[in-house]
């Protein structure tokens, strides 16, 4: 097993230097924090992850969660993650002091969770979903719900889940049929089936608090008629006793990856005795859920970035230790009398490693940026500033979820390839990361759905205001970088790409204006790859700018090599990744329509 | 489980119409065959695969091969594959009548093995490696080796393997250290370790015949000093009794995929009693092995094409049956009162399905083309024609191995994505195909090694003669297609791409001419993707040309829709795949050098 799963120095560089944590700490909410204290928190998380998470990653794959006699059984470290993690504030971190939290900035929470994800991606989800469901109760639930459920969730004693998907509806939430029938007792009677419920049941929590989307009898069709309920596995009575609430664990889905993270099928109200308590107002369930969704989507991007990071370090270590083959002599031949070289010295292996590095570190920088926007939209006092960061977050969020997931999977594949035949063998961790990360393009809205969100909704927000704001951010970096002769050509390249992107977007909007929405959105996924790649070019140019600045001004927190390597990685991104946008813009400007169904089926 | 794993009609179309099996049958060697009899053979293979291979694919994954007490245990269908398959000629098919074979063209053998691979990719390898090792004995071994080993191999009673890789050497065969010490008894004493030996041991064969690369004591260093030996697991004596030959099964590698296909670690001569018999001349081992390598590389491309095909049909069937979501109305909204649509009607799902279709069917066409070249180089009487097809085969073989493997893995990923969350669950087959196909970019020379072969050796063959021949073939298709107004623009596009490719190649050769071979080959892998995509554009244009021709002339063996769909798929390839070459040519023309190691390590 690899000895290291992240480069802590790079994480700190991105957090403190590139994304300037201090700017976020200016918000009143964070008055008690400073960089030094937060750094200690992150060190503690790293130490916890080294000791309690990383050593169990292979074991959790080999001993997957399973369902037996109506119960789900998971690895013992789930208990440690929830209880010790709960104690450390890994569930409650971002909550207000009032709610028992640490009032951490999202930026720090993301960094902390990234470390945990990279150490063992099968574990932090148990805490993350408990956090997410507690957050829904805190924001939208009444005092009784808060008092009854939130403290035990934040301590890790009770698990929390989000119950959206149903077997017949899949991603289409307007087809949710789980039923809520009002009673005169203040609760609703819930009946229905939910699938793909992560962390939905296990032996290490006394209770589970399910946040369930359901339709109150007589509610309008579609997403407008969906309400949100707290449905505990066991109902606490006034003495604190827990009584069964007719929630059944039907099954645990067996999966290709993340096998230690249970994925349950839950049944509600089989015996007509399942009670649910309305959160907030009726018919507002989807709105509430989606207000929390940005956090969830940052979490997915973060998890994928973390797996890509761990895979990068595992394959890098292998490449540094494995002798094989020889370097080419100037006649193109190899001299067999010469000793073997390490595989890290083969250009093709370096290409695969650098690809992993730019995807992993770039993705981390992107999720940190989203987290910073998340903080600033909350803490900024000026309304227009608040709105600016809210719009920026809305625009980038589908990319934040998708780019690390899609490109992370490709990066991990390169990591596996670095090991050759060993990469395919279960003795090595790469094949596990390859399986684990494959769920990320599906989680929390598939790539197809995120892409439609990006092109069909986010680009049109406030008449394109969000895109204008992002463009300004990018132009600002371009201007700043242009002052460095060594980097200017990359800034110019990005400027050119940005101009072409505007043309591409106009040409796509043309379909929307004509009312041909199906055509407008039919190439949304290539558009996602297109805009993400341009955005990532900006992310890398920004990283390089901060490195260059440190080298030029001499205000260095890291070694010269450290900064030079970041600039090298930026160049790699521009040489090997940015050119993809040339082909993608051709696809997007191509007027031929080949994927819209008509009477004659072309698929056979 | 899906009901169909291939589209037999498409296979026949490619075999009979596009690649004109009849042209191959003109060779004297195939005088006894005609299309009708070969069609019956393929029907029998399909029937065998339906009954004996396809039903066991999931079971073989769930009950992987394993090692216990020095023996490897595999699924019972391995016995059926070898014995019944052997009886049907699935091992001996391409061998001469003299050797007990059917004298089948490679083109037909490939089609037959493709069916088996698509049905269950865990099984045909057992037969394929037995065939490959028997072929080495037939071509280069003496009469005694032939008589002793070949008949029992072709009947499937004994297994055969290729033993190349060693733990310390990996892909670098010049570092093979397995030792062969001559004796006065006509045999050598063999000692060493071989790893990643597919089909290296199991309970269903009385004996195994290992073709082992080893170094005769005192042989020169490097690949020049490697010889080839027959090393049986058990030595047959003159009475036909089998005696242990000091070959130990050390382990069975546990893998992420193809878990039913054992991958053994073999030890030779632990007790100093392992005998090997030299095949052909000393120090010629690698040459012999590589003369057989084209067949092995076609087989890898074929297997990957087959898995991509099976995955395509599984996801297509799901998409045709799964209702979810609604089509967009002209206002961009969805009407929840409307019934759900099938997911095949969503453009993004269609895009993923069409991507799978063009990769799977295009890859099949490519491996069939390679097989046709393989036949023609053997059966053509004219020496210059023989040489032409030999060169064409040499040039395309690295692409034949790589394109289906790399793009097939991406296609299967799209297949998994079509199923959403279910795609990740072990109840569905897509996740298995996703794991199974991942070994193909590693098998028989990784993508990196194939890419260096393509750029560093094949492009330079006879001063670029091979590339000139391929270019002429492509230009001929362009000319032919240009007569159809509807298709002309695609022909023009391919012509343009071909011209740019010549510039790209010249600019790369510039480094070779300067003697900077490391730089020349440093972007070999992007070059592989580049030239493969252009080659595949030609493959698809050729398929479309044959379809258009049938529609225009009315000489139809298939429905109009069948032909129209092939043309549609070609258009899809040109819209969504060909543009990749724009970015790739930018990468290849970029003069910046970022992946060549120097003193300062940029990777951390």
From TrEMBL, chains A, B:
Cofactor: FAD
Domain Acyl-CoA dehydrogenase/oxidase C-terminal: 335-453
Domain Acyl-CoA oxidase/dehydrogenase middle, residue spans: 162-269
Keywords: FAD, Flavoprotein, Oxidoreductase
EC numbers: 1.3.8.-
PANTHER family membership: ACYL-COA DEHYDROGENASE, ACYL-COA DEHYDROGENASE-RELATED
Family, similarity comment: Belongs to the acyl-CoA dehydrogenase family.
Protein name (record): Acyl-CoA dehydrogenase
Native source species: Aquimarina celericrescens
């Amino acid at each position: 097993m690899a000895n290291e799963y992240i480069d802590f120095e790079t994480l700190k560089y991105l957090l403190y230097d590139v994304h300037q944590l201090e700017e976020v700490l200016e918000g009143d909410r964070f008055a008690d924090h400073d960089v030094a204290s937060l750094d200690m928190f992150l060190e503690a998380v790293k130490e916890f992850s080294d000791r309690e998470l990383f050593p169990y990653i292979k074991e959790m794959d080999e001993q997957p969660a399973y369902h037996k006699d109506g119960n789900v059984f998971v690895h013992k470290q789930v208990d440690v993650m929830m209880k010790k993690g709960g104690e450390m504030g890994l569930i409650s971190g971002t909550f207000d002091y009032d709610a028992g939290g640490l009032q951490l900035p999202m930026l720090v929470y993301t960094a902390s969770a990234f470390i945990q994800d990279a150490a063992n991606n099968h574990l932090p989800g148990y805490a993350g979903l408990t956090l997410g469901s507690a957050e829904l109760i805190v924001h939208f639930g009444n005092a009784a719900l808060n008092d009854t459920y939130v403290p035990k969730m934040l301590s890790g004693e009770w698990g929390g889940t989000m119950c959206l998907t149903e077997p017949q509806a899949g991603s289409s939430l307007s087809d949710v049929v789980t039923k809520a029938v009002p009673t005169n007792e203040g609760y609703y009677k819930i009946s229905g089936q939910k699938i793909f419920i992560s962390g939905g049941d296990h032996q290490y929590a006394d209770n589970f608090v399910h946040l369930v989307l359901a339709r109150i009898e007589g509610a309008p069709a579609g997403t407008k008629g969906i309400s949100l309920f707290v449905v505990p596995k066991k109902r606490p009575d006034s003495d604190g006793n827990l009584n069964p609430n007719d929630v059944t664990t039907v099954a645990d889905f067996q999966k290709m990856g993340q096998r230690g993270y249970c994925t349950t099928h839950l049944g509600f109200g089989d015996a007509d005795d399942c009670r649910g308590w309305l959160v907030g107002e009726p018919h507002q369930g989807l709105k509430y859920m989606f207000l929390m969704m940005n956090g969830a989507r940052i979490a997915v991007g973060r998890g994928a970035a973390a797996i890509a990071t761990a895979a990068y370090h595992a394959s890098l270590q292998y490449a540094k230790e494995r002798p094989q083959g020889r370097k080419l002599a100037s006649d193109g031949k190899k001299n067999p009398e010469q000793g073997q070289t390490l595989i890290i010295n083969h250009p093709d292996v370096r290409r695969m490693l650098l690809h992993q590095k730019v995807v992993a570190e770039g993705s981390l920088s992107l999720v940190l940026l989203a987290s910073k926007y998340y903080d600033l939209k909350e803490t900024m006092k000026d309304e227009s500033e608040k709105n600016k960061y809210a719009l920026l977050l809305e625009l980038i969020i589908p990319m934040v979820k998708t780019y690390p997931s899609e490109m992370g999977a490709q990066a991990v594949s390169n990591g596996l390839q670095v090991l050759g035949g060993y990469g395919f063998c279960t003795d090595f961790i790469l094949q596990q990361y390859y399986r684990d990360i494959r769920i990320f393009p599906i989680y929390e809205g598939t790539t197809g759905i995120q892409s439609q969100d990006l092109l069909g909704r986010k680009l049109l927000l406030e008449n394109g205001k969000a895109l204008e704001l992002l463009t300004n951010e990018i132009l600002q970096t371009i201007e700043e970088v242009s002052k460095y002769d060594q980097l200017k050509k990359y800034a110019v390249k990005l400027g050119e790409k940005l101009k072409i992107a505007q043309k591409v977007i106009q040409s796509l909007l043309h379909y929307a204006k004509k009312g041909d929405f199906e055509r407008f959105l039919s190439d949304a996924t290539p558009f996602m790859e297109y805009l993400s790649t341009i955005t990532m070019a900006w992310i890398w140019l920004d990283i390089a700018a901060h490195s260059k600045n440190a080298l030029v001004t001499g205000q260095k927190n890291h070694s010269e090599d450290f900064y030079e390597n970041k600039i090298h990685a930026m160049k790699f991104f521009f040489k090997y990744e940015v050119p993809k946008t040339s082909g993608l813009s051709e696809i997007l400007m191509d007027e031929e329509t080949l994927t819209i169904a008509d009477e004659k089926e072309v698929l056979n």
